[in-house]
Amino acid sequence: MKIVVDQGKCVGAGQCVLAADDVFDQNDDGLVALLEENPPSERLEDVRHAAAVCPAGAITVQE
Amino acid sequence: MALTVTKVLRSGVMSIAPERLQLPLPRPNILDLAPLYDVLRREAPIAPVTTPAGDPAWLVTRYEEVRLLLGDKRFGRSHPEPERASRISTAAVQDGPSGEYATEEADHARMRRLLTPAFSAKRMRMLSDHMGRLVETYLDEMTAEHEATGVVDLHSRLAYPLPVAMICLLLGVPESDHELFARLSERMANTAIGEEAHQAREEFFRYMVGLVETKRPQLGEDVISDLVRAQSEDPSFDYEQMVRLCVGLLFAGHETTVNRIGLGTLFLLTDRSRWEALVADPDGRVDAVVEEVMRLGAPGDLGLLRYAREDVDIAGVTIRAGDAVVLSINAANRDADVYSDAEDFNPDRPERTHLGFGHGAHFCIGASLARTELRVVFSALAHRLPGMRLAKDLDDLEVRTTLTGGVAELPVTWRSL
Description:
Chain A has 63 residues and is of the alpha+beta class. Chain A has helices spanning 15-19, 44-53; strands at 2-5, 24-26, 32-34, 59-62. Chain A contains two helices and four strands. In chain A, the strands form two sheets. A two-stranded antiparallel ribbon of chain A has the order 1-4. A two-stranded antiparallel sheet of chain A has the order 2-3. The longest helix of chain A has 10 residues, at 44-53. The model of chain A has no long low-confidence stretch (mean pLDDT 94).
């Protein structure tokens, strides 16, 4: 699995951090920062959830 | 109209009469919604309605469309001809179009850029110890008062002071003025005082101009100082826009989490098993409780307001450019197509998402602040006051006549029975 985040779209909601804080973080500007670009497959459900609840559609999961 | 629909419902014929529904739909109490929302979701998910201000609008009730439209750039908050736009209510917030039609998106992007760092989840987590200490102080005071009187008002002793103290700290606003701007916020959101709500908005604006100019010579590390700096450096950032934004943030700090703490307490205390489940494991359960309070808590009875920027065909209707659209977060969050036993308060539900903070570009900037406050409050209450119960029936509680809803009082007791 590969995750791509778009800081240009990010609105700093922090929903992804709530869904998977071992994969997503927020930088000093409050925007999405990727901690783990290729998380193990057992994280797929939470990562998919993070992408689904992102209010700005800034997260893409390539499986 | 409401009567007609009730009759139709009782006869078992689930259809909506062709006339426009009048908003707001009367609700049975502060926790439940009008049963008609369920019919609307199934039969007319985007329905023509008349707003409380008497103007035409579309009411969107299904999760799918509410979420879709919140994230759709063809809908905004401004209107090309604001004076001709439908008005939603007589309150002075979310009552009609706001912002400049031509520059709305750019203005909003700048605002997000300026505010996002200050309200990030990380910053809010750093504040949670401070919040925890504040809440302990409030609970000490409540306990002392309870010893003397046997009953204490959770609204004025906890639900109100915490969010107000936090927003004052973040914005750099003197807490000593809190009675003044609490009154102004209340009047701005009031739907029962007509033009006076707009007068309150003017007064709030003048108060904020005074505050901004007092702070200007010695700006600090707070959100209003940040905005004043940004505005003075950016010629395209209008002064009035900056002041309105400061008013909006201080207003939001008063009229949102305060009500949510009250509603959450009511959800928990009106069914003992909910409260006992939290008390049994406050730290393990509080996050899920907070999310369920965000899903089900329905302060106010309208929704988020948008105006179509172009003609849009959706769910069998055509929304014309300039039409007002009321997105019912309350109804969407109880959509049976999305949530199992949607009306039940169940923090253990498998569905992990809701629209309680909105969606899309306008997603609540204070979501992390609110979540942190709610967690601190409900976990502290469960730890310290496990025997707490309502001292007044739900139906006897005074409800505020504001757009943002909530209770005006919340007497609780933990005397032994």
